[in-house]
Specification:
The structure holds three protein chains of three kinds. Chain A is of the alpha+beta class. Chain A is 44% helix and 20% strand. In chain A, strands 1-2-3 form a three-stranded antiparallel β-sheet. Chain A is globular. Chain C contains twelve helices and twelve strands. Helix content of chain C is 38%, strand content 13%. Chain C has two domains: 140 residues, Aspartate Aminotransferase, domain 1 (Alpha-Beta Complex); 241 residues, Type I PLP-dependent aspartate aminotransferase-like (Major domain) (Aspartate Aminotransferase, domain 2). The chains are: A alpha+beta, B alpha/beta, C alpha/beta.
Chain lengths: 133, 375, 409
């Protein structure tokens, strides 16, 4: 399979790999996908007092396109408000990385991951409730 | 020119030098076209380039080309892949068409070996076959069939049309769209390509059942790892096939000269399909009262390679069903040989043929009836 | 673009997908592309005889490597055609008395698809499961074969996991019930000793391009005594004793013959060399990476194959990383799809582990240096991807990944 240069770049030099403390109240964690499907993404955001996303980290088990999709969204969400970040669509990710049709699901997963992370953060900060990751 | 004259180009042709070069290069590269790594992708690219070349040569699109292992396999795939009955074929088809399925209907030919279109239409109306198969040019006589007409009539009555163009390809222009057929069989080794590679060109609207079950190669129409180097060689040969038609003109001169001079030696000798449109390289001629086997052996001793019919059945000394279907009597049919010219032949080969043929005729053919040799 | 690789050619470790043509084979083939170009079925002139002579010598060479008589060898376009011809040919010929076929779930796709095709035509097919090591259970086979079974098709060596089935015992069980034993030996010939008589094999498929011969050619061994009869699958000129029509390609036949002759001669030494390379690889990988698992039996296995699951790493991303290595993540025919290997699934390998597996094939041109580079590349990328893997992180933290309720995706 021939990969797009941007996918290769993110695969070889992934941005923001790592983990944030999922128990911290300013961190939202999204964990999506399933090992049996060949893709699992963990995406975390750290939200500042100003409501902007200060930092984002990811870890991904999946193909190069899945890694690139998650790496890309960590770049995109930084500095955005939650509402802005929530508007990121998988089609934008797929377009930016020129994903072929069989890899569109990777971008869908990345969109789901960011939404899940935001939801987690909101659930935590809003209701001050522990959410299982 | 060599001391031997190869005049059996309808059986197989020498591989063209540029084709050999491409084959050897492909043989030296490793890779399964189904593998995703670089080696595999490279092999895939070679196959797809060849597919374009073959498609272009017959005015089809690359997606319509299914690579197979031989012309025989292509014909089997066409006739059995439609999986609908009945099937009607002409009386002069190669065995790989005639015997591909059981219980075929036979469309007769006239005394020149041309499909009788009147009879063809009547049979179509009566039996309503699902598929019709008529070859573009006969391998033994070289007689060209009215395939465009056949296709028009057959389509008008709802039948699909297959055409075995194995023998015609590279000798006359083969244009799938102009012919109007749904499926077209081709073989590499008849056009200066290698043995072991063929193709069935299939109109994309046709749902073809594969002959071989297995991997999803050739869009699920033909399983098995692609014969990469064979396909590459086929592609190069096909790309040159239409340029080489010039060569056919040269073959025609040689054939016409041979025909004229042999007839001068034996005015009674029948040339089969003489007044029909024929491939420019093919001469099917009788040596009165001299059995074909005797002729081919004597000519071989004189360094001339010809054949007593099609190569596949020439081991058996049976008279040609093609000639029999043209109404040629058994006694005459068994005295027919096929001479087929090709690249590399010159007038020297014609001279040699005429001399050896003439000498043999002088010895045996002086109108004495030879006893039947026991088969 | 390519700044990293000095020598741009990757290291070929995919010998089960296809093998490079041995230069000695090419040399033997060359005359048949240039001077000896006759149609081997042209009986009327020297061109034809010369080609026929080459073809017949090759037939004897193919027969020799499996202990068969040359008259029992039919040339085909490849193992796929051989397998189709063997199974359909026998099933159709004997269908009035026997309408049952036995095969195994780990067979090559072309065997399984052929059996499914026959099922649609009214034949009954038993698909034997395999044990965790990839071998069939002989007792299950014994129970499956009946006096209605016409043919049992069990591959000699699996293309993905390289395991060798107990051929002799399988043949005995078949013959006790009067069934024919067919084996797809595309991955076995030239790698393990095969003797069709000692092993009770009635039909055997061979592929050219898996044994350093050309693509586009294969062979089918068909026993003559007691005679196995087949319905031809390609009709026409009646070549190959009526069992397979079509003009033979002398260059390819000669290539297959030469490939068999070389393999037969060199197999004893080559097997030892390959086993050493394989063990070197496996030992190094296991020493440097935790949580790697070998799929398929190690002892009953050809020397040139490994199939390894690297837990918590996804196979395709690993392939992308180790681009200096040409390896396969599953069988070549299916590896373009996203489905995990059905062979590994049949061994009971869980789907997530099947996704992380690589098939590494060593062969005639593999060097120790290449093996060492391969180890380095794989260790480096597995480590990097695990550092990036949320599953690895959880596993290290002691989370049981199975305990998580993963959303179906």
């Amino acid at each position: 399979m021939a990969y797009n240069d941007k996918v290769i770049d993110h695969y070889e030099h992934p941005r923001n790999v790592g983990s944030l403390d999922k128990d911290s109240s300013d961190v939202g964690t999204g964990l999506v996908g399933a090992p049996a499907c060949g893709d699992v993404m963990k995406l975390q955001i750290k939200v500042g007092a100003d409501g902007l996303i200060q930092d984002a980290k990811f870890k991904t088990f999946g193909c190069g396109s899945a890694i690139a999709s998650s790496s890309l969204v960590t770049e995109w969400v930084k500095g955005k408000t939650l509402d802005e970040a929530e508007k990121i669509r998988n089609t934008e990710i797929a377009k930016h990385l020129a994903l072929p049709p069989v890899k569109i699901h990777c971008s869908v997963l990345a969109e789901d991951a960011i939404k899940a992370a935001i939801a987690d953060y909101r659930a935590k900060s809003g209701k001050d409730e522990k959410v299982a990751s | 020119m060599s001391a031997v004259s190869y005049l059996d180009h309808n059986a197989t042709t020498p591989v063209l030098p540029d084709v050999v070069e491409a084959i050897v290069e492909a043989l030296r590269t490793v890779g399964n076209p189904s593998s995703v790594h670089r080696f595999g992708r490279n092999a895939r690219r070679l196959v797809e380039t060849a597919r374009e070349q073959v498609a272009t040569a017959v005015n089809a699109t690359a997606g319509e080309v299914v690579f197979t292992g031989s012309g025989t396999e292509s014909n089997n795939l066409a006739l059995r892949g439609i999986a609908r009955a009945p099937v009607m074929v002409s009386a002069i088809e190669h065995d790989s068409v005639a015997k591909a399925v059981d219980g075929v209907l036979i469309a007769p030919v006239d005394s020149n070996g041309v499909v009788d279109l009147g009879a063809f239409r009547l049979l179509l109306e009566k039996h309503r076959p699902a598929l019709v198969s008529v070859m573009l040019a006969n391998n033994e006589t070289g007689v060209i069939q009215p395939v465009t007409e056949v296709a028009r009539i057959a389509h008008g009555l709802g039948a699909l049309v297959h055409c075995d163009a194995v023998q015609a390809f590279g000798k006359i222009k083969v244009d799938m769209k102009a012919l109007g057929v749904d499926m077209l069989s081709l073989s590499a080794h008849k056009i200066g390509g290698p043995q072991g590679a063929g193709a069935l060109v299939v109109q994309s609207s046709i749902n073809l059942q594969p002959l071989l079950q297995g991997g999803g190669q050739e869009k699920r129409r033909r399983a098995g790892t692609e014969n990469v180097h064979g396909i590459v060689g086929f592609g190069i040969a096909a790309a040159g096939a239409n340029d080489h038609l010039l060569e056919s003109g040269r073959s025609a001169n040689l054939r016409d000269a041979a025909e004229l001079r042999l007839k001068a030696l034996a005015p009674a000798a029948r040339v089969f399909g003489a007044t029909a449109d024929r491939l420019p390289n093919t001469l099917c001629i009788e040596m009165p009262d001299v059995g074909a086997e005797t002729q081919v052996m004597a000519l071989d001793l004189a360094g001339i390679a010809v054949s007593a019919g099609s190569a596949c059945s020439s081991g058996k000394v049976a008279t040609s069903p093609v000639l029999r279907s043209m109404g040629v009597e058994e006694a005459i049919a068994r005295c027919a040989i096929r001479i087929s010219f090709g690249r590399g032949n010159t007038m020297v080969d014609v001279d040699r043929l005429v001399q050896a043929w003439g000498a043999l005729f002088a010895r045996h053919g002086a109108r004495l009836v030879r006893p039947e040799t026991a088969a | 673009m390519n700044t990293m690789l000095r020598n741009s050619q990757p290291i070929y470790l995919d010998y089960q997908a296809t093998t490079p043509l041995d230069p000695r084979v090419l040399e033997a083939m060359m005359p048949y592309f240039t001077s000896k170009f006759g149609n081997p079925h042209s009986r009327s002139h020297a061109y034809g005889w010369e080609s026929e002579e080459g073809v017949e010598k090759a037939r004897a060479q193919v027969g020799s490597i499996i202990g068969a008589d040359e008259k029992e060898v039919i040339f085909t376009s490849g193992a796929t055609e051989s397998n189709n011809l063997a199974i359909k040919g026998v099933a159709e010929f004997y269908k009035d008395k026997r309408d049952h076929i036995v095969t195994a779930v780990t067979e090559h796709k072309c065997v399984l698809d052929t059996c499914r095709h026959l099922e649609q035509k009214g034949f009954k097919v038993t698909y034997l499961p395999v044990q965790q090591n990839g071998l069939i259970d002989l007792e299950q086979l014994r129970a499956a074969v009946t006096d209605k079974t016409s043919i049992v098709s069990i591959m000699a060596v699996n293309n993905e996991i390289g395991v060798v089935q107990p051929l002799k015992e399988i043949g005995e069980i078949c013959h006790a019930k009067g069934a024919f034993f067919h084996t797809d030996a595309a991955q076995a010939v030239g790698k393990i000793d095969i003797d069709v008589n000692a092993m009770n094999i009635d039909l055997l498929s061979i592929s050219g391009h898996k044994i350093y011969g050309p693509k586009g050619i294969g062979a089918l061994y068909v026993r003559r005594r007691p005679r196995v009869r087949l319905v031809a699958q390609i009709n026409g000129g009646g070549q190959e004793r009526g069992m397979r029509s079509g003009t033979l390609a002398p260059a390819l036949c000669v290539g297959l013959g030469e490939a068999c002759a070389i393999a037969q001669k060199e197999m004893p030494v080559e097997a030892v060399r390959l086993r050493k390379l394989r063990d070197r690889f496996l030992t190094a990988i296991k020493a440097r990476l935790p949580e790697v698992f070998l799929n398929g039996d190690l002892d009953s296995r050809i020397p040139g194959n490994l199939n390894i699951s690297f837990a918590y790493v996804e196979g395709e991303s690993l392939m992308m990383g180790i681009k200096r290595l040409a390896v396969s993540s599953g069988s070549a025919c299916t590896s373009a799809s996203l489905e995990p290997s059905y062979v590994l699934r049949a061994l009971g390998v869980e789907e997530e582990m099947a996704h992380t597996s690589l098939r590494i094939g060593f062969g005639r041109f593999t060097t120790e240096e290449e093996v060492d580079i391969a180890v380095e590349e794989i260790v480096r990328h597995v480590t990097k991807l695990r550092d990036m893997s949320p599953l690895w992180e959880m596993a290290q933290a002691g989370v049981d990944i199975k305990s998580i309720n993963w959303a179906a995706h």
